[in-house]
Design brief:
This protein is mainly β and about 450 residues long. The protein contains 6 helices and 27 strands. The termini are far apart. Bound molecules: 2-acetamido-2-deoxy-beta-D-glucopyranose (5 copies). One 2-acetamido-2-deoxy-beta-D-glucopyranose (NAG) binds near residues 189, 296 and 297.
């Protein structure tokens, strides 16, 4: 930051990260970590000295760029070009903060579009008050082999806020998926993403409704210092692959106060992600909160230092899950799930090292993504299946250092048990069902 003015955005983001890493007991938040950062990352301690130098002078008012001022004709039904022109202006017209305004009470149709940096503006706030809508015609993507709808790429200090709605109009995708209709061809290997943030450092995404995505709703990739908060994410429980928030290759990500109801994972955290915290999450329907899947196609994967806390899961197929494919390599470690309430969840606590989301069966392999130092603490509620706790670990690489502390799960009218293979489990406090420590 140096002598540059610190802007209100960075102050709030920074405060959150300071809270995240210093006000909570680092030992508790990230067990097995002594609270220090890897030396290559500039941790909050590196920035905390800047706090003393804060200039609270608000500076010049931000430049406000209204997308409506860039519409050629009021009756145009495709607004993509207007948004791109407005973005150019907000991004590069000055060295000051700028605001890209999407006015309230209107609906804007956007084709697949990418808002790119780097920008001259010190911060950009995209204030979305109205509704952004995607075309329902799938050929818009299929013909061009595209994977994203709205992309923000390589932008520092971006905030996307405003209380508006982002509607992916995904119905055509869901009914034509090979997962909902066996006679359909599976079209793409990757997942389509409604709102895609790539290489955005110091990013805030806050207070929006994101609904009916074709597939994934919000994706955070290759980004650092990210706050995702107060999002309402919704798609039908039967819609395939509609993950809520997907984090990949990103560090220091805080997801807070989100309500997520979709047809796939509410939150999924995949390879390259470190220091991720999710707090105050409501999830259901959906597939729960997942680390993974990791290690598909014999890939190397690494996820570490994840804290999932204060979550409520209702009627989901999984509660808190770690899933890895056979044949992969790498590790998932120092992951804590705590203060979680489950209501009628099918697999409340699950580690699946034999994950196989493929039409053809997965054969036994000689390697696996290692799973170490996983802590479950104060997890309570009900299971709709008999196996409330299920650790399916690999024959080749056993799960190590699983700690259960005050985990109490009962059946919806049935007696529940813990099932485990190839796992070393340590029990602390009062746990039910009980998993006997073994290897
Ligand atoms: C803004 O300016 C930078 C540097 O000149 C350039 O790389 C970038 O493409 C510009 N962005 C837009 C949206 O015009
Ligand atoms: C979708 O777009 C394709 C080509 O862009 C067009 O041929 C087709 O008629 C459109 N379908 C619908 C339902 O509008
Ligand atoms: C599945 O797709 C086929 C066309 O490929 C269609 O005829 C059929 O009605 C679809 N089934 C359902 C349940 O939507
Ligand atoms: C694995 O690779 C195959 C062939 O390249 C591809 O079809 C499949 O989608 C990949 N699976 C995953 C989960 O990436
Ligand atoms: C619990 O979940 C099961 C299956 O997920 C469902 O069939 C059942 O109706 C649910 N029970 C309640 C009380 O919601």
């Amino acid at each position: 930051m140096g002598t540059k003015k610190l802007l209100p955005t960075s102050i709030s983001t920074m405060t959150i990260f300071l809270c995240m890493f210093t006000h909570i007991n680092a030992e508790e938040a990230f067990p097995f970590v002594d609270g220090t950062y890897p030396s290559e990352a500039e941790g909050p301690t590196a920035e905390s000295s800047d706090m003393d130098e804060l200039e609270l002078n608000p500076g010049p008012p931000p430049r406000v760029v209204d997308v409506d001022d860039y519409r050629e004709r009021a009756d145009d039904d495709d607004h993509t070009e207007a948004f791109l022109q407005a973005w150019k202006e907000a991004c590069n017209s000055s060295d000051y903060p700028s605001v890209l305004l999407v006015p309230e009470g209107k609906t804007y149709l956007l084709m697949p579009v990418s808002f790119n940096g780097p920008c001259r503006a010190t911060t950009i706030t995209a204030t979305i008050r109205g509704t952004l809508e995607a075309p329902s015609n799938r050929s818009v993507w299929l013909d061009r082999d595209l994977q994203e709808w709205i992309t923000f790429d390589n932008i520092d200090h971006l905030r996307v806020v405003g209380g508006g709605t982002i509607n992916g109009n995904g119905h055509e995708w869901w009914i034509n998926s090979c997962k909902t209709n066996q006679s359909m061809q599976c079209v793409s290997a990757g997942n389509l993403q409604a709102l895609y943030f790539r290489r955005c450092n110091h990013l805030v995404v806050e207070g929006l409704q994101i609904i009916d995505s074709m597939q994934m709703h919000v994706v955070i990739a290759y980004s650092w210092r990210v706050l995702v908060s107060r999002l309402l994410i919704a798609a039908p429980g039967w819609s395939p692959n509609t993950d809520g928030i997907h984090v990949s290759n990103s560090r220091e990500v805080l997801i807070s106060g989100c309500i997520i109801s979709t047809g796939d994972d509410c939150i999924s955290i995949v390879t390259g992600s470190m220091f991720v915290r999710a707090t105050g999450i409501f999830c259901g329907p959906g597939h729960g909160i997942s680390i993974g899947s990791l290690g598909a196609n014999k890939s190397w994967a690494h996820v570490s230092d994840v804290l999932v806390e204060k979550a409520t899961l209702v009627g989901t197929t999984n509660g808190v899950r770690i899933k890895t494919w056979q044949g992969g390599d790498g590790y998932a470690e120092r992951i804590t799930f705590q203060d979680i309430s489950m209501h009628n969840v099918t697999n409340p606590v699950i580690i699946d090292q034999n994950y196989c989301d493929s039409k053809t069966p997965c054969h036994e392999q000689g390697s696996a993504v290692a799973i170490n130092n996983i802590r479950y603490r104060n997890i309570r509620g009900t299971s709709s299946s008999k196996i409330a706790i299920n650790f399916v670990c690999s024959n080749s690489v056993h799960c190590d250092g699983i700690v259960m502390q005050d985990v109490s799960l009962v059946g919806e009218g049935t007696y529940v048990s813990c099932s485990y293979m190839n796992a070393r489990v340590v029990e602390l406090g009062y746990n039910f069902p009980y998993c006997r420590a073994e290897m």
